[in-house]
Amino acid sequence: MPKITMREAISQALMEEMERDERVFILGEEVGVWGGTYAVTRGFYDRFGPDRVRDTPISEAAIVGAAIGASMTGIRPVAELMTINFAFSAFDHIVNEAAKLHYMFGGQFTLPMVIRAPGGGGRQLGATHSQTPDAIFAHFPGLKVVAPGTPEDAKGLLKEAIRSDDPILFIEHATLYQMRGEVPEGDYTTPIGVSKVHRPGKDVTIVTYSKMLDLSDRAAEQLAREGIEVEIIDLRSLRPLDMGPVIESFKKTNRAVTVEEGWCSYGVGAEVAARIYEEAFDFVDAPIKRVAQKEVPLPYNRSLEQMALPQVEDIIKAVKEVM
Amino acid sequence: MDKKDCLDLYYQMVLIRRVEERAAELYQQGKIGGFLHLYIGQEAVSTGLISAKQPQDRVITAYRDHGVAINVGISSKEVMAELLGKATGVSKGKGGSMHMASVEANFWGGHAVVGAHMPIAAGLALGDQYQKNNAVTICMFGDGATNIGYFHEAVNLSKVWNLPVLWVCENNQYGMGTAVERASAVKEIRRKADGYDIPNDSIDGMDVLNVRRAAEERLKFIRDGGGPYFLEVITYRYRGHSMGDPERYRQAEEIKKWQENDPIGIFRRRLVEDAVAKPEELDDLETQVEAEVREAIEFAENSPEPPPEALFENVYVEN
User: What ipTM is given for this predicted complex?
Assistant: First the structure.
């Protein structure tokens, strides 16, 4: 399989779906003439023209609202938010409209729309531009929240999201765009709401997703050299949350560490740990540990920012604590 | 307009009023829950507007939506059943008073967050523009909605993309209990559209034929590629913002003054004076309306509650 970057994988998914289905179009800030703030849609404007690659004003409520309305007419918008931090400017439309209209009107119409939004810290962008608020969006029934950790999954999940009739928030990690990975050639999709054993092991279960998958991999390598075999479960979707592989793994290892980039309180790890306690309490050999961001707004200073973000060492330490 | 069309408009306006008068009673009896925002006094706006549209034109409005629902052709039975939260309601009992919609009738809601449906309206129009549908989206909203950010984002986008939207501000003088001049920097609301270079004007919304005529012209302008248009319609609601409004913000005389200009009364006088219809014919229609509303209530009261399994239906299309 060829190795390509996450950026190329996402770009390929968009390109292939736009070629496959004329109803698919892109709207967002700087997606057209500029080529995408993160260059994901470079070349799209020339290839598909201004009707299908639509530059918008800096107007997030209008971007998401227009995507909702357009999807109600049967076309398939892919709205890009420059960062997920700006999703708060469209919060009402994401959680109060997109997530609810299908249900509230008795299923009369569907909202086949995708909102792509890169997020995450580690780029010294300061407190307002560095957040990982994934759990907030995953709180709302009616919305699906997907966050891939590998180029292969990014491509397959995005293609699946574009073909889905449900509204989907597709969260990318801005520091993963350069990450390379093997991606199958040709058309394929990856199911939404299906977790996956990313790395098999027998001693401790690590439950993670998105960028923290890479850090967990690196922690697992180091731990393997010390004779500790961790099993990594990649959630890939936060809603629907597929606990099957997590519970199966936990029943084998009896120990778990959750790893997320967002804050610990009310987070993904809190949800996963609660579900493990509910569904597999008899298998618990040690309290579940959560690795997450320190409870501060992310600072600009590089050292301080890195102190606040989860590190490979934090994961290794947590794994050893549950052993 | 021929006689049949005139009588049809009259029937619709009376139907809206009687449905809502009975809904208010049912609310007081505890049979309707939640919020109930009555359209009484404003019937000519929606009735005139919607009578001017073509079938492919979409309609979207805010939470004061019972009148629109009836005008687009949803039966009074389905409206009443929705108010009572029944499975036979237009939104299967899951939407309630504020959230009625019917894809079949090209009515896209019934949206309860002030102004939030306006970007969605822009999206509906974008969908038609994208698919070259030759349809216009009629988006109705109150004067209060013109002060929230969504209004400005949506109206701006509509002009930038030349979207086929008829923006209709129903200026009923109050956003809840706050008078326009206490909430809006611009008292003459249509002037806000000037900020977006959108053609606009303001009309009397108590005369249904006047509203219809204005709507026909503006819809043609938009359909001919003129881009969005902003129509301010001056109207008045006789009842409180919703049931349970103490109405401390206005005097009884003010309501009385507007009631002298009642949209149904004006239209009735017009029909009789112009010899379009005899008073007895109009009385007959009103009797028919009474019967229809009785049947609607009977239908709603005898309809089943949504089954328990409906709770988890339609959260997603694909589970």
Answer: 0.96
